[in-house]
Amino acid sequence: MNLYIYGLESDFTKYQLQTLNNKFTKVIFSNNDNYDIVIHDHEPKVLALDPDISGWGLSNEIITQIPNLKAICLQTTGYEWVDGSFCREHNIPITNVPHYASISVAEKCIFMALALAKRFPLYLREGGMSYAPQFIGDELWNRPTDIIGFGEIGHALAKRLEGLIGDKEICYYSHNQDDQNFHYLPFEDMLAKSEFMFVTISKNPDSIALFDDLSKFNKHMKIIVISNGFEEVTKRLVEKCEKDELGGVAFESDDPAILNHQYNGNIFVTPHNAHCTKEALKRMFEIWTNSIVSIANNNIINQVN
Q: What are the pLDDT digits (tens) for 111-128?
């Protein structure tokens, strides 16, 4: 079985490269998203995709042209950028890299919340100190705080918020309602009282629909969006904040036009670097390598479709 890695060989340790070479007949690296070599290889094969190389996508049209494709191993936790249902219909497992950046992402969420609380975006634009009313910040202590989506990242975030929020109960909204350490609250009940809302939920039609009607969100709420795939929701939140109908919005983007735009209001935009710590990246390549090897061992781990 051959292995095609659309990623950089230099990202892997010597031990990881040795492990892969021991498990596969050939290991071929590509630093671009040209799939011609894979399409013309009729041997059984695995594709391992770094989204920065593959452009956050692998179309169904290309998948159907690749003969003997045994699995697609994604380097990311999110897997919505490859059609899982289509691959399942064609008996192609997809694996992801779960949980590697939960701590890093949780810490980035707190950084973004503090930036909004202290009106950091306004000071950046002002270029100095101001005592104008709109520059006066808030403390997080004892503020109503809610987390939308309570998976690995949501839990990691809640645990780190406890010391910042204090005795005020941290509430969460999720399909799972059985966490005994934190308080479940229906989403509608959060909208009038929440002052800090963290969006860590996976993208799906139901989660996007939560934000269909923004008129119910109170004007003091500061919303931190860390979930992928919420670009349209974020755009609407930003428009609402610029009308002074929200207390603040923080999110990530790699679009230069968005990163460099001069917004009105308490709007904090950073690159997509929540996952980018030495510890998280080390875990990512360890898990990715293990997922790839599991295909060769015929004992698949981290399958998502």
A: 999 999 999 999 999 999
